[in-house]
Amino acid sequence: MELKKSQIGKPHGSLGRMAPLIVMAIVIAVIVYLFLNPAPFINLMRFAQAQSRGKTLAQADAEASASASASAAASAVGELKTPDDYLNLMKVNASTLSDANKKVLSIFSDELDKITKAKERETVETNSEVSTIFQVAQAKTDDDLAKIKDAATQLKQTSDTAATAFQGIQPELAKRLADIGVADPLNTQVADGFAKQGNVTDDLQLAQNTSKFADAAAAYVDFLKESKNQWTRKPDGTLSFHDKEAVTKAQQLGKAFSDAAVQAGFQMK
Fold first, then answer.
1. Which of 59, 67, 125, 150 could form a disulfide with 55 if both were Cys (CB 3.0 to 4.6 A apart)?
2. How many CA atoms lie within 13 A of 206 on its CB side?
3. Is there a single domain that holds both residue 52 and residue 156?
4. Average per-residue pLDDT in the chain?
5. pLDDT digit string, tens, across residues 10-40
6. CA–CA distance, 227 with 237 (Å, rounded to integer)
7. CA 181, 186, 188, 193: dihedral to nearest 10 degrees?
8. DSSP label at 232?
9. In terms of Cα–Cα distance, which of 255, 164, 159 is closest to 209?
């Protein structure tokens, strides 16, 4: 049977009609295979790229590995660029940090420990000393005044020691950061940010105010001891002075004592 002219060159029969579907199925199967297992295609592309540069695949892989290592090393050196970058190290898991960053974190930990211990020591010792100083409202004898003066002297030492510790945090931290390669002024900026986060300025101010309170307490007690023959304690606890000059002096020193107590956050009960 002869084909009509319009049928020449076209598929015919059931197989002919299925040919496009078969081709499409093969194409889809290849695409799915490459999607699920892209390694052969990727390796083929890498091989082609290596050949275009006149190198073997092994040589290309070695160069890529060296480049990646260099990039990682550069990233490790430059990853901390701002004060916040450094301070944020305190918020991450130390086990995930590089050795260089672990050194930074270790320095932060040391300085935080100094702050914590200074606060704890100051709080414990101050509470006892201030409690004794406030007994000035009932002091009558030389022994009473001597105990209060000793407490004021000890409070002065305690607060000055704390103030020295807090004052040293920033310069010490800046120096330690510089020792491990953090350049100036970044090391100083990190130290300032660290102190700010730790409220070191507030702690220093409190220690200094406490020291002033100790000075005021000592001055008041010294006056009471020196003028012991010029005053008596009334039943209600107030002092009665025998001359006007002593009254004026006592009022001045008493006000300075009360004001300093308020500034240091203390309240007589």
1. 59
2. 15
3. no
4. 81
5. 555 555 566 666 667 676 765 656 556 665 5
6. 17
7. -120
8. E
9. 159
